[in-house]
Amino acid sequence: MNLNLNNKNALVCGSTQGIGKATAIALAQEGVNVTLVARNREKLRAVLEELPDHRNHNLITADFSDPRDLQEKVIKFINNQHGFHILVNNTGGPRSGNILTASLDELENAYVQHLKCNHVLAQATIPFMKEGGFGRIINVISTSVKEPIPGLGVSNTIRGAVGNWSKTLSIEVAQFGITVNNVLPGFTETERLNEIINIKAKNLDIPVEEMTKIMKSQTPAKRFAKPEETAHAITFLASEAAGYINGINVPVDGGRTKSL
User: Fold this and answer.
1) Residue 49 predicted with pLDDT over 90
2) Residue 55: which pLDDT band, with cuts at 50, 70 and 90?
3) Looking at CB atoms within 10 Å, which of 46, 87, 93, 110 has the fewest?
4) CB proximity list for 62: less than 8 A, separation 6 or greater
5) Which is it for the CA torsion 103, 104, 106, 110, positive or negative?
6) Cα–Cα distance for residue pair 190/227, rounded to 1 Å
7) Per-residue pLDDT band at 191 (split at 50, 70, 90)
C-alpha cells in the first residue's frame, strides 16, 4: 500500500523516547519531514541523528507545562520554516494514584499538559492544513477513555476530556480534508509502563518480575507491545489511505480492552 506521505511535514510531540520517538522514525521512513518537540534539547538532537536523512528534519525545544510558550515557538517555526500536514499529540502520562487523593495541582498540571497543549497545537497547525485541503491530527492517549484503569485516577479523568475534545474537533474540521483520531496504546514497553509496574509491585509487596507476568497475563496477546507497533498505527492514520477514518478511538492493546 502506498501511503503517499513523501514530503509531508509532521510535528511529533514527546519524541525523545517511547511511542513518540518510534513514531518520528516510522514517519521519517515513509519520507515525512519530521519536526521533533520535547523539552530536552540534547535528547532531541540525539533522536534527530537517528532519523533517515536527518538533514530534512528539525526540532523545537519546549516544555508542555507552559502551553503559551509552546504555542509561540510552534507559530514562530511555522512562520519562519513551514506548516504541518500532520500533528501527533503525545505527552507523558500523569502520576499514578487514586482520584480521591489527587491534588488540585495534579489535576491542573495534567489538564495543562494534555488538553491545553493539544488545543494550542491544533490551533497553530490547522490553518496550514486547511489551505492545502489535507490534515491529520493523531492524539496518543490511553485505553482508559474506554475503560478507566485502576490506580490512574488523574490520567483516566484527563484522557477522557482529551477524547471528547478530539471528537468535537473532528466534526468541525472534517469538511476541510482534516481528520482527528485517537490512538489508545495498551501495555507498551516504555518508561511509563516500567513506572506503573514498579508502583503496582510495591503496593502489592511482590517482585517486579511477578507483577510483569501478571500484567502480561491480562492481555490476550500475553505480551507487551513494542512502541513501533503503535507507531505503525499512527503512521497509517496520518496517510492519505486513512482519509475517511475520522473521530474514532483506535486501541493498540493486544485485545485487552473488553469493550468494542
Assistant:
1) yes
2) confident
3) 46
4) 37, 38, 39, 69, 70, 73, 74
5) positive
6) 7
7) confident
pLDDT at 56: 87
Dig out the grid coordinates for 213 from the structure: 507476568
Contact 231, 23 (CB under 8 A): yes
Pairing of strands 58-61, 135-140: unpaired
Closest among 127, 129, 159, 131 to 146, alpha carbons compared: 159
Backbone angles phi, psi at 183, to 5 degrees: -105, 130
What number of other Cβ atoms are within 10 A of residue 35's Cβ?
25
What does the pLDDT look like over 137-168, one tens digit per residue? 999 999 999 999 988 999 999 999 999 999 99
Question: Rounded CA gap, 194 and 191, in Å?
Answer: 5
- The pLDDT score that the predictor gives to residue 243 is 97
Average pLDDT over residues 17-25: 97
Q: What is the pLDDT of residues 207-219, one digit of tens each?
A: 999 999 999 999 9
Which string of DSSP letters, residue by residue, matches 32-67? Answer: -EEEEEES-HHHHHHHHHHSTTGGG-EEEE--TT-H
Average pLDDT, the chain: 95
CB-based burial of residue 244 (10 Å sphere; 0-12 exposed, 13-18 middle, 19+ buried)?
A: exposed
The answer to whether 197 and 211 have CB atoms below 8 angstroms apart is yes
Task: Please tell me the distance from the alpha carbon of residue 171 to that of residue 247, in angstroms, as a whole number.
Answer: 7
Which residues touch 34 (CB under 8 Å, ≥6 apart)? 10, 12, 15, 24, 27, 28, 51, 57, 58
* Bridge partners, residue 152, by sequence: 97
